[in-house]
Each structure stands twice: as structure tokens, then as C-alpha cells.
Amino acid sequence: MRLVLLGAPGSGKGTQAARLREHLQVPHISTGDLLRAAVKAGTPLGLQAKAVMEAGGLVSDEIVLGMLEERLTAGDTGNGFILDGYPRNLAQANALDALLKKLHQPMDIAIQLDVDTELLISRLAGRAQVEGRADDSPEAVRNRLKVYNEATAPVVDYYRNAGRLACLNGVGAMDEVFQRILEALAPTPEVG
Ligand code: AP5
Predict the structure, then answer these.
(1) Does a structural domain hold residue 109?
(2) Where does the chain bind ATP (predicted)?
(3) Active site includes 123?
(4) 19 catalytic residue (yes or no)
(5) Identified catalytic residue from 127, 146, 164, 180
(6) Do 40 and 115 reside in the same domain of the chain?
(7) Average pLDDT, 10 consecutive residues per value, the chain (192 residues)
(8) pLDDT, position 190
(9) N- or C-end of the chain: fewer Cβ atoms within 10 A?
């Protein structure tokens, strides 16, 4: 199973990807996690990405695509993968399709988790208190939501128009949301 998880910051992509990884036994590939690891390790790429991430902006398409290609060719994606945090704009969506075509690994489905803005802000404020992630400050969250609405929301339409989207309610207990995803992945999913 090769799937893409879409949704605004705080919609639960990382939370659900961790459950799906256990369920499907395929790697969870999060471009946010890959970038945070590069920042932590102080690599040249991480140094370039750090300020942009802390401000809630998007790291350059070129950097992220290079990183993703390296990860997708690491040799453990034969049975599929869960992609979380990519694509984030139409250029990335096109680049992903081209990359997966080159790798002969076409994507099965994109799942969007839909959560209203007020709840997103409240979830991220809660996480800020617990984890202190640099981009969970109120200013960075505002910017991340703006970037999502301007750059990433069109990606949802891109997959909808291609008949590859399942749009799900991301509100409710984590287990409930997980069940909705499993239903969407069932052999005859309702897509669109
Ligand atoms: P990234 O790490 O992808 O962050 P994000 O998209 O903003 O997503 P979050 O991790 O904040 O939220 P999530 O949807 O995963 O929700 P989560 O499960 O964590 O990206 C970070 C940055 O890296 C970007 O801003 C950008 O700078 C850069 N970047 C990454 N990819 C890029 C790309 N492709 N191109 C360019 N730049 C890129 O949940 C959030 C909180 O809510 C948690 O506390 C969780 O416990 C809670 N929660 C989750 N589900 C529920 C539920 N059902 N009920 C109650 N609480 C819940």
C-alpha cells in the first residue's frame, strides 16, 4: 500500500501514520521528521532549513525532493509506504508523480484529514506546552496555517480531480479517526 496523508498542521497526520505503520507494516516517511533530523544533526541541509521551519514557511522544493528521493530509494519501500507532509504544493505533487513513475511505485490513495481551524490551533497549543516544538509558537502556527491554505489546499483538489482522494473527518478520538482510515483503505474504498 502506497499512500499519502494530507491535512493541515495539527490534523493528525503523524499520529495516524504511526498507527498505519504498525497496521500495514510499511515505513512512515515524514518530510518534517527528516528535516528536523537534519536540523538536529546540523547538516548543511539542516542549517539551510532551520530558520524557514521555525518561521512556519516551506523549505525549498529542490531540497525536500532530493531528500525524499533518497529516502524512497533506501530499499525498504517494496511493500509500500506512508508519506506524511509531502506534497505541500502543486509542484511537489507533480514531482512526486514523476518520481513514483520512475520508481515503478504508483501511489494508491491520498487521504485527507479534515479538522476545523479552531481545533487545529488548540491541538498545536497543547503540543507546544508538552513538547516545545519550535514551530508550535502562535506566530509560526498562524503562518503554517496560512501556507497550508494558500499552497497545500490546491493539492487536495489535484488528487480529487485525479480520483485518488479520500477526504475524511479528522475530528474525534484518535482510534475513531484510525477506523475511518482503515475503512477508506478497504478493498472497495469510496474515493472522491
Ligand atoms: P511537519 O512536521 O510535516 O508538520 P505539519 O504538517 O505542520 O504537521 P504537524 O506535525 O504539526 O501535525 P500533524 O498533522 O502531523 O498532527 P499530529 O499527529 O502531530 O512539517 C514541519 C515543517 O517542516 C513545515 O512547516 C515546513 O517548514 C517543513 N516541511 C515539511 N515537509 C515539507 C515539504 N514537503 N516541503 C517544504 N517544507 C516542508 O498531531 C498534532 C497534535 O494533535 C499532537 O499533540 C497530537 O497528539 C494531537 N492529536 C492528533 N490527533 C488527535 C485527535 N484525534 N484528538 C486529539 N488530539 C489529537
Answers:
(1) yes
(2) 10-15, 127, 172
(3) no
(4) no
(5) 127
(6) no
(7) 97 98 98 97 95 97 96 95 98 97 95 98 97 95 98 97 97 98 80 57
(8) 52
(9) C
- The beta strands (E) that lie in the chain are given as 2-7, 28-30, 81-84, 109-114, 165-169
Contacts for 168 with CB less than 8 Å, ≥ 6 apart = 111, 112, 113, 114, 177, 180, 181, 184
The ligand 1 atom nearest the CA atom of 52: 27
- 119 belongs to a structural domain: yes
Is 180 one of the catalytic residues? no
Main-chain phi, psi angles of 2, to 5 degrees: -115, 110
- Same domain for 91 and 154? yes
Largest interatomic CA distance in the chain: 45
Structurally, the chain folds into a number of domains equal to 2
Nearest CA to ligand 1 atom 8: 9
Residues 103 and 146 in one domain: yes
192 part of a folded domain: no
Ligand 1 lining (C-beta closer than 6 Å): 7, 9-15, 31-32, 35, 52-53, 56-59, 64, 85-86, 88, 92, 123, 126-127, 135, 144, 172, 174, 177
Q: Is the pTM of this model over 0.85?
A: yes
User: Residues forming the annotated binding site for AMP?
Assistant: 31, 36, 57-59, 85-88, 92, 133, 144
Tell me how far apart the alpha carbons of residues 173 and 72 are, in angstroms, rounded to a whole number. 31
Q: Give the CATH number, domain containing residue 14.
A: 3.40.50.300
Q: Which domain holds residue 42?
A: 31-73
